Structures are given as structure tokens and as C-alpha cells.
Amino acid sequence: MQESVQKLVNIGEMLPLMEEFYTIQGEGYHKGTAAYFIRIGGCDVGCHWCDVKESWNADLHPPTLTEKIVDNALKYSNVVVVTGGEPLTWDMTLLTQGLKSKGAQTHIETSGAYPLTGDWDWICLSPKKVKRPTKQIYGVANELKCIIYNKSDFAFAEEQAAKVSEDCILYLQPEWSVRDKMIPLMVDFVMKNPKWRVSLQTHKYLNIP
């Protein structure tokens, strides 16, 4: 990457854009609603079950002017979800400023592994064991989404739930490849621990992005 471009990326005037698309939110609190998704490249959290591993290497995704990303999003929706990769690898300040200055609602899906930047209307925290969230994000997360891949993930979910605010909505979501195995265990767990809700990747059932 050219040094001049790298400097713009470092301050958030450009971002490594993997893809952007208008679709239906498939997960969590806002499932079933229309939103514009911005997927930012770059992630070193490294979940072995990640279904977008092609997002990990930021160098594979072209640095794109943040102003252009904002303009593209607002052609479709005033609800914008920023995801990754791990979007907080980069400074989200200018992206959210641009979106909110034009009346958009800003949502982020993050592992919380990096300091929170940007101005967000909704924060979905999806913590990972391999690189834990910063202390800062627990108190401001609107929803906690814990991925259930094996039985030990229930204990991890409870550990994470103890750190968020009382107003944070708690979700358990089966990892897609083991959903048939884990959903019955999740149902039983939620019935015994009703503070939790089940989240499914409904966009995959609907066969949409």
C-alpha cells in the first residue's frame, strides 16, 4: 500500500472495503429489518469457525474513501450496519460522523477486541475467547451475542453476560455448521436461564446475503 494511502487509512479517511450491500438483517435484535451493510476488511481475532475468513487480510480489500462509502450507503437506507472482519481495527470516527450528519442510524457488529471508536446508535458485542473485549465496550453494548460452537461456550457466555449492563439484551447463537447439534442444548439452556434469547442466522435460512 502506498504510504500516502496508508496515512489516510490510519486516520479513517479511507477504509479497506470488502463489500457493501442492502439486505435484511438476519441476526439479533434487529433481525427481519432492512439495512445497508458495510463489511470492512481486516481481523486478527482468528475464529476457526469464521464464515468470512476472506475478510481477515485487509490488504486484499481496496482502500476506499470513507466519504464515498457514506454516499453509497445512503442511496439505499438510513440504517447502516458496519461489520467485518473486525471494524474496530480501524478508526470509525469519520465514517460514523459522515453517516450521522446525513441522518443515518449507525449500528456496529464487533468482537470488542479493539478500543471503541465512532458514534453508534446500536452496538452488538460478539465476544471471542481468543481475543477478549476491552473493558470499555461492556458498559455500552446494546446486545451481547455469544456464538455457541461447543458446550464450553455456555460458560463463556455467562462470564461475558456478567460484564455487560443490565439493559444489554443477551443472545445465544449457534455456529452454523453445528446448529443441528447445538440448538437443542441452547433451547434447554435458555428455558433454564430465561434472561437469554436465541438468535438464529435467519438470512441463511432465507438464502439472502
From TrEMBL:
Belongs to the radical SAM superfamily. 7-carboxy-7-deazaguanine synthase family. Pfam families: Radical_SAM (PF04055). The gene is queE. Catalyzes the complex heterocyclic radical-mediated conversion of 6-carboxy-5,6,7,8-tetrahydropterin (CPH4) to 7-carboxy-7-deazaguanine (CDG), a step common to the biosynthetic pathways of all 7-deazapurine-containing compounds. InterPro entries: 7-CO-7-deazaguanine_synth-like, Aldolase_TIM, rSAM, rSAM_sf. [4Fe-4S] cluster binds at residues 43, 47, 50. One of its GO terms (biological process) is tRNA queuosine(34) biosynthetic process. Its cofactor is Mg(2+); [4Fe-4S] cluster; S-adenosyl-L-methionine. It comes from Aquimarina aggregata. One of its GO terms (molecular function) is S-adenosyl-L-methionine binding. Its EC number is 4.3.99.3. Substrate binds at residues 24-26, 39, 83, 209. Homodimer. Residues 30-209 form the Radical SAM core domain. Keywords: 4Fe-4S, Iron, Iron-sulfur, Lyase, Magnesium, Metal-binding, Queuosine biosynthesis, S-adenosyl-L-methionine. It catalyses: 6-carboxy-5,6,7,8-tetrahydropterin + H(+) = 7-carboxy-7-carbaguanine + NH4(+). S-adenosyl-L-methionine binds at residues 49-51, 85, 126-128. It comes from the Bacteria. This is 7-carboxy-7-deazaguanine synthase. Binds 1 [4Fe-4S] cluster. The cluster is coordinated with 3 cysteines and an exchangeable S-adenosyl-L-methionine. Binds 1 S-adenosyl-L-methionine per subunit. Pathway: Purine metabolism; 7-cyano-7-deazaguanine biosynthesis. Coiled coil: none annotated. The keyword NAD does not apply.
